[in-house]
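Handoff note, outgoing to incoming analyst
You'll be picking up this chain. Sequence as last confirmed:
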Amino acid sequence: MKVLVLEGGANEDDSGEAQFGGTESVVDAEEYLILEPRPDIDVLDCNSTSSRAAVRAAGFVAVGIVEHCCCNEFFNNVANVTGSVHVADSTTTLRFGNVSSIGGDIVVPGEWWRAGVLESVDFESLRYIGGTVKISSGKLSSIDFSSLTMIGGSIVLPFNDITHVQFGALLRIGGNLLLHDNLLTHVDFARLTSIAGNILLYQNAITALRFGALTHLDGSLYAQSNVLSAVDLQGIQHIQGDFAVYDNVITHIHFAGLTHIGGSVYLGDNALTSLNLSQVTVFRASFFARSNQLTSVLFSDATTIFGELNLADNLLTRLDLSPVSRVGSLNLQNNFLTSLDLSSLTRIDSGVLLSKNRLTDVNFGTITGISNTLDLSHNRFTAINFHRLTFVDFSLCVDHNALAHLDFAGITRVGWALDVSNNNLRTISLANLTVGYNMALNNNMLSVVDFGQMTAARGSLNLAYNALTAVSLTNLRSIATDLDLSHNPLKQLRFANQTRIGGSLHLTNTTLDTLDLSLVTSISSQVSVVRTDLTRVDCMQLGRCICADSSTSLHHCPPRCDVC
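Most recent structure output, in case you need it:
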């Protein structure tokens, strides 16, 4: 890095051209630093006749700030500005004349809700800007920073019509580079060696990115929603923030010498067919590559993904996760996997989502618990080996498979919902299992359900569309919401203890001919006994409303429901 030191005042040489009258020296340093002279005049207001006259009389000067830029005095009499330049609302062409440095910002009117009118910028002799260049929502079609070597703040140019940006000799941007929502077709970072903030290039028409001399991105790169077909990170060793190139048409991405990514990687909604994570060993956040056409993923040197690994909605038929030993969560939904080996993993911090594949086998290895949801639904399992799993903290979903048998083995706790619906189960034992909320056992062929010592269903209990002929709720004393036994050849329902039903009792389309509710202490919602063999029902003052055939004799029942 270099230091540009400006000392002394300003004057004119014999030819009449403005010259800086002091000394200028450039020395090596770790950071750029501009040591501006004290301003000769505090303010140049281009709308003020007296202010302009004072600057003309002073000759060639340093001013503190410039208001309502621009005017001839700014072009001809100002050597440098120690503060900011505020451009007038009506300015369509912005020039900088003989100004060599600006210590503060360049602020051009225009916001996304109020368009600006600026059409062109010529930096001319300007070498240094200490603050931010802000030209938002204008009419710029191109911009050339070639005269500059450093901008200490951000470049903020969104919502223009820019098709071309040239960085030239610019070496450093001390803040963000915001070029989003323009008409750019390519970006070449040229000689830039440092961009301290985020790079926002989204919502353009970019087909190519060239990183030039950049080796480190100190912030995030967001280049989503362009038309990139390939990304080559050749030369980039370090990305401190996120790397987002989703929603493009990328068929190839080359991580080259990249060894560190501090944020998340977003590669979704592209046309990638393969991925090689190359030399990155640790992903500090998440890795998203969903909605591509991936058939192959090589994790190479990657051992840890602290966030989510999301490869959902691809064409994967097999996946070798080694050498990955830790992920925050895993989402492989909607692929074509037939088996999956998770034995390389020693830690999963959150959920595992594997639905909508063709899985018949998953090896959970040494994993003892899933701290969120385990979703194995919509696969081709006929049996599941849970290996060493002892708990699932949120939902356990094994619905829509071909399960003829289900042994929960060492699993004793499901923190939220259990869904085993839409399988071929004939019997099931919940004897050693506690479930935190809903239990869906519907749409099987169940004739036997063993509740063991379960005393409470903390959500709904859905046993509809099975082959149950008799149900004895031996130890169940509380069902927090609905109890659904509809669409079974049910002849007998026995409440063995005083039982509370916090929702509805559904017995529609059963063959019940008697119903004893004497041990039921409350039913908070609907009682449904439509299309049964019941000729008489004593509701025992339970329920909010009842659905029953017109031929059924009702006693001590609530009013009929408006909707059944």
